[in-house]
TrEMBL record:
Organism: Popillia japonica (Japanese beetle)
Full protein name: Cytosol aminopeptidase
GO cellular component terms, semicolon-separated: cytoplasm
Known role: Cytosolic metallopeptidase that catalyzes the removal of unsubstituted N-terminal hydrophobic amino acids from various peptides. The presence of Zn(2+) ions is essential for the peptidase activity, and the association with other cofactors can modulate the substrate spectificity of the enzyme. For instance, in the presence of Mn(2+), it displays a specific Cys-Gly hydrolyzing activity of Cys-Gly-S-conjugates. Involved in the metabolism of glutathione and in the degradation of glutathione S-conjugates, which may play a role in the control of the cell redox status.
One example of a Gene Ontology biological process annotation: proteolysis
Family from the record: Belongs to the peptidase M17 family.
GO molecular function: manganese ion binding; metalloaminopeptidase activity
Length: 446
């Protein structure tokens, strides 16, 4: 008989045993790595929580692949992280399969009383991210602006959220030139989705999610290779819906207004042309030099509209620039902000969830590159080469209400569809939904 010492099982690796006891015929033993590593300042990560997520996911995947139908998992002294890792690993997009694979049930083994609440919380947060993954993964013909709004209503109304889908005529009354311009090339009508979650507490927070349900690039059309991935150009909108699901499921005491401009960006005889000049809700004129830089146009109007809610802060999230992937790969979400205090809260939230963020500059130099033009106020791409993500953030800054704390999250680097984490399966990743939930939670009255 071979005896395998525990310290020989590497972190995240799994060894399977059969027939050790009657109740559990198949047992997976997973390595957690070195104990008590805590917060790593260089990685900006809670290493212990991340190790638990990785171990829980590895154990789940091993047993699921062996055909085990009922999987029970220990808490690893962190039931919330264990639940997150296993639940995130369990996600598979099977909505369109004629023959679906059986899913394994998941439960906590011999839970202590305090572990039950932690376990349930981890399930809720991971389920919120899996919801964002499903919305982003759905093909564009099955996730139009109208369908997305209906899905959000089905998901969030039972949790007490108020859903207000606004139509084209409403947007025209608000003079939302950016939002209306992007959707002109599509037969699908645009929808400006407004969602309210009134959980209590002081003040109102505004979350804005980019909702381009398919992005061909418009007249400035994208290359055909991998264009199908642009079904997930509404990843920001999906993350916002997932965030509201997580907050409402846990009854977090905050007041949230979510603004989700939903459009398709397609070429046609009615589509916006390179060089066209339009006006945003705040009256600023915009030269649309590249119709594939469309997300910032719809976000501009959403940022202007956010002023009507007198927000404590505004956060927008979008798959905005390919340049962010060049800068960060899939390791983190890029952040631009006028509030160091809010960024510190966001960074701590990300360190806990394992879904990290990284701050980029919001310098005047980038604003000069998008505003110093003689014939219009703002250019949607800006001058010069490089700094694409920074110039995009500077563009958005022109539409942020005065004296309002603001964060812009460019999530293009983490959306997928490739596998970006040891506990996330292939497909759209739903990041950074759990980080957004934790960020809001840390400012709640609960």
């Amino acid at each position: 008989m071979m005896i395998l010492a525990g310290n020989q099982i590497k972190e995240g690796k799994c060894v399977t045993f059969w027939g050790l006891e009657p109740e559990y015929q198949c047992v997976a033993v997973v390595g957690l790595g070195k104990p008590c590593r805590g917060f790593d300042e260089i990685e900006v990560l809670n290493q212990d929580k991340e190790a638990v997520r990785i171990a829980a996911a590895a154990g789940y995947n091993t047993l699921h692949n062996l055909g085990v139908k009922n999987i029970v998992i220990e808490s690893f002294n962190d039931a919330e992280s264990a639940a997150e890792g296993a639940t995130l690993a369990s996600w598979r997009y099977q909505d369109l399969k004629s023959k679906k694979k059986d899913e394994s049930t998941l439960d906590l083994i011999d839970p202590q009383q305090d572990e039950c609440a932690q376990w349930e919380e981890g399930i809720k947060q991971a389920t919120a991210q899996n919801l964002a993954r499903t919305l982003a993964e759905t093909p564009a013909n099955l996730m139009t602006p109208t369908i997305f709004a209906k899905k959000a209503e089905e998901i969030l109304t039972p949790l007490g959220c108020e859903i207000c889908p606004r139509d084209k005529s409403w947007a025209e009354s608000k003079r939302m030139g950016g939002f209306l311009t992007v959707g002109k090339g599509s037969e699908e009508p645009p929808v400006f989705l407004e969602i309210r979650y009134n959980g209590g507490g002081d003040g109102t927070y505004v979350l804005i999610g980019k909702g381009v349900t398919f992005d061909s690039g418009g007249i400035s059309i994208k290359p055909s290779a991998n264009m199908a991935d642009m079904r997930a150009d509404m990843g920001g909108a999906a993350a916002v819906v997932g965030t509201l699901f997580g907050l409402a499921s846990s009854k977090v005491k905050v007041n949230i207004v979510a603004l989700i401009p939903l459009v398709e960006n397609l070429p046609s005889g009615r589509a916006v042309k390179p060089g066209d000049v339009i006006k945003a809700m705040n009256g600023k004129s915009i030269c649309v030099d590249n119709t594939d830089a469309e997300g910032r146009l719809i976000l501009a109007d959403a940022l202007c509209y956010s002023k009507e809610f007198n927000p404590s802060w505004v956060l927008d999230i979008a798959t905005l620039t390919g340049a962010m992937t060049v800068a960060l790969g899939d390791a983190a979400t890029g952040v631009f902000t006028n509030s160091n205090e809010l960024y510190e809260v966001l960074e701590l939230a990300a360190a806990k969830t394992g879904d990290r963020v990284w701050k980029f500059p919001l310098w005047k130099r980038y604003s000069e590159l998008v505003t110093e033009y003689p014939f219009y106020d703002v250019h949607n791409v800006g001058k010069g080469k490089g700094g694409g993500s920074c110039k995009a953030a500077a563009f958005l800054r022109e539409f942020v209400p005065e004296k309002v704390d603001w964060l812009h999250l460019d999530m293009a680097s983490v959306i997928g569809p490739g596998k970006t984490s040891k506990y996330l399966s292939e497909g759209m990743q739903g990041r950074p939904t759990r980080t957004l939930i934790e960020f809001v939670r840390r400012q709640s009255a609960s």
